[in-house]
Amino acid sequence: MKLITVEEHYDTDANIDQFNKYSQVPNNNPRQTQLKPDLVDFGRKVAYMDAHGIDMQVVSDAGNSAQVLPDQYAVDGAHAQNETLAENISQYPTRFAGLATLPANVPDKAAAELEYALTRLGLKGGIISGTVNGQFLDSPKFEPIFAAADKLRTTLYLHPGVITDQQKALLYDSPAFSDRTSTLMAGAMWGWHMEVGIQMMRIITAGLLEKYPHVKLASGHWGEFVPMFLERIDGFSPLVTDLPHSFSEYYKRQVYLSPSGMFTAPQMQLALTEMGADHIMWSEDFPYVQDGDTTRQFLEQAQLTDAQREAIAHGTAETVFDL
Asked: Which of 61, 95, 137, 311 is least surrounded, with the fewest CB atoms within 10 Å of its CB?
């Protein structure tokens, strides 16, 4: 079984230095320093893939990326990340594909960078992590990014990002537990993912997928809560929008899910029931998640037909990212 994983990550020494110097968004991953070799060194990635039966990774710079730098650094920083990513991929062209870092708070520049990355560097889509300085992507400000993705018929991966201090204070800080607890709850335990689910709901409700039917959106962590609420959302859709189709029709048409290392049978079955195998891809979230042989074995042993297994293992990803 050929295996492609699609939410896998990299970084560069230059971006790490720039992030530490200029970013106002905290890096709250306690393992970031020890993970640096697996983020930066593509040879180490290949060795890991070889050891655990992974044929290809679709890699991206997420969370601590140039996206969150001040505008005067974000445009050049994202461009440098994409150039370096393409250079690394060129050394292992059968093992990696890449998604472009986008300076999303400068939408015209982000749109131009997406087109450059796809047409000149051979990257396969773009990635946006969380809100953009607290702004959701349904704002008309960001429409140039969707217009470019639609023109290119490409995929935007909507990845979690560090939530704002205001969100954390309102939703997760509590006198009943420590700040460390609220930080984790606001982050990878819950908060990041809920925010990306809200991001998706706003994008579709605002009509962006109606206007841009050739955009594909990828969503990790089994859809960031949205699939389990599709019918509930549809029940309210006629009251909040006059779009010609229901929320779930847009979602099932243009959104593609992956587990991001959440190898859990109940969530997989829910996603499969709602979306079908042709809208599910596989992902480990390397190197933040390193499940080793489980990454392959879980899928091999899952209760799937052979056709479903092949689609989830590689077929859907090959279609979504033009591999």
From this structure: 95
Closest CA to 298 of 1, 38, 56: 1
For 259, phi then psi, to 5°, come to -85, -20
Assign domain 4-320 to a CATH class.
alpha beta
Provide the whole-model pTM: 0.96
Does residue 47 surpass a pLDDT of 70? yes
* C-beta of residue 15 within 8 angstroms of C-beta of residue 66: yes
pLDDT tens-digit profile of 281-298? 999 999 999 999 999 999
pLDDT value of position 21: 87
From its phi and psi, is residue 31 left (phi > 0), alpha (psi between -120 and 50) or beta? alpha
Contact (CB, 8 A) for 94 and 57: no
- The string of pLDDT tens digits covering residues 184-229 is 999 999 999 999 999 999 999 999 999 999 999 999 999 999 999 9
Closest CA to 307 of 276, 263, 283, 282: 276
Q: Report whether 138 contacts 205 (CB < 8 A).
A: yes
Which residue type, as a one-letter code, is found at position 243?
A: L
φ, ψ for residue 54 (rounded to 5)? -105, 120
CA 129 to CA 132: how far, in whole Å?
8
Helix segments in the chain, DSSP class H: 13-22, 32-40, 42-52, 71-91, 107-119, 143-152, 165-171, 179-186, 191-205, 208-211, 221-224, 230-240, 247-254, 265-275, 294-301, 306-310, 316-320
Structural domain boundaries in the chain:
4-320
Neighbours of 118 (CB within 10 A): 20
Q: What's the alpha-carbon Rg for the chain, to the nearest Å?
A: 19
Identify the band that residue 30 occupies on the pLDDT scale cut at 50, 70 and 90: low
Category of 61 on φ-ψ map: left (φ > 0), alpha (ψ -120 to 50) or beta? beta
For 30, the token pair is: 């306690």
β-partners of residue 282 are: 5
Beta carbons of 156 and 149 less than 8 angstroms apart: yes
